[in-house]
Known about the structure:
Blueprint: E1 2-7, H1 13-27, E2 31-37, E3 51-57, H2 65-72, E4 80-88, H3 95-105, E5 108-117, H4 132-155, H5 164-179, E6 189-191, H6 200-204, E7 210-213, E8 216-219, H7 228-232, E9 238-240, H8 242-263, H9 268-294
Parallel strand pairs: 1-2, 1-3, 3-4, 4-5
Antiparallel strand pairs: 6-9, 7-8
Helix pairs in contact: 1-4, 8-9
Bound molecules: flavin mononucleotide and iron/sulfur cluster (2 copies).
Amino acid sequence: MRFGIYYFSGCGNTFWVAQRTIEALERRGHEVAFCHNLETALPMDLPKTDIDMFLSPIYYAGVPSLVVEKLKLMPITGNKKAVFWTVAGQFSGIGRRFGSFLLKDRGYNVMTTLLIRMPDTYLPLSISQVSEEQKQLIFQKAIDQIDMGLNEIDHNTTSPGEKKRTAILSALLYFPYLYYLRYVLSYCFISTSKCIHCGKCERDCPCQTIRIFKDRPSWHKNCTGCFRCVNTCPVSAIDISWIGIGFGVFGAVCSWFLATVFFAFLGSVLYFLLEWVAFFAGFWIGTWIFQKIYLYLPIEKYLMMKGKKRIFIADGKK
Ligand SMILES: Cc1cc2nc3c(=O)[nH]c(=O)nc-3n(C[C@H](O)[C@H](O)[C@H](O)COP(=O)(O)O)c2cc1C
Ligand code: SF4
Ligand code: SF4
């Protein structure tokens, strides 16, 4: 059979899985017609295939916003076969269901979905710090999972997806990310004085969220949350700041309080909505203000990630 692969990889793990999948497909006598990185524009003239494979990492218990945006732009197909594979540190949350839903919306017949476990690139979690031995074990298991997934395709079988309860609970984390957090997340990043002004973070960001300002990176909205900038800075100069998050929380609480005082006389539903709009706007403004004044304050020693070891990136390239 002829396969086409579409993937996105923030820090290299999904790319690594894509490479191993290509090798495994070819060993099984299949042909891989193309391997397209969803970070780049969709070419108009991709070769014809029998099955399209979609490989996506899991961020915040779902599919990265960048992948969602690209899947929504896929050309409409007439019942073409597809598989949707996810790559996650632990669990795929609502990702497998949501990815399949988006593909079905483009006319795909989604045969099967899969979860492949790889090292966790979400830096704030201490479980991210895995030893060399653990990594090798994770890789071996990932190769086994890829084989299992290809068996499902070859024999037209499916493994169970997420349980309904897991999917519903994950949605509570995922949809706030998709519709709100990604506009705020990047304002919690800062570059420390270790920065050597190389511009790599600006060049590599898949969402063009980073601009160099006063020789140092400055983050803007629409960050897909891939943590590539943090994980691949050559001198580990990018941190997440508790103070930035603190500014956001302070702004959110103040705005919520003001909204309560000013809008309390309105009807209860509208009042409730305005309170929450104010809360989220306050968080956004708080983190934004922090980003702007950070460079002028001597607060580097309070930064959250300072001194922590950067975690592994599967291949160092995408
Ligand atoms: C912002 C962020 C959120 C994440 N959320 C989850 C999650 O909800 N569940 C999970 O199992 N792994 C989560 N991860 C871990 C990634 O899914 C995992 O490390 C994956 O291999 C990353 O692939 P990539 O290098 O191709 O981006 C998260 C990683 C990041 C950066
Ligand atoms: S990649 Fe690191 S060192 Fe280079 S500009 Fe960005 S923060 Fe500075
Ligand atoms: S700002 Fe960093 S985390 Fe956000 S999309 Fe760009 S590289 Fe990824």
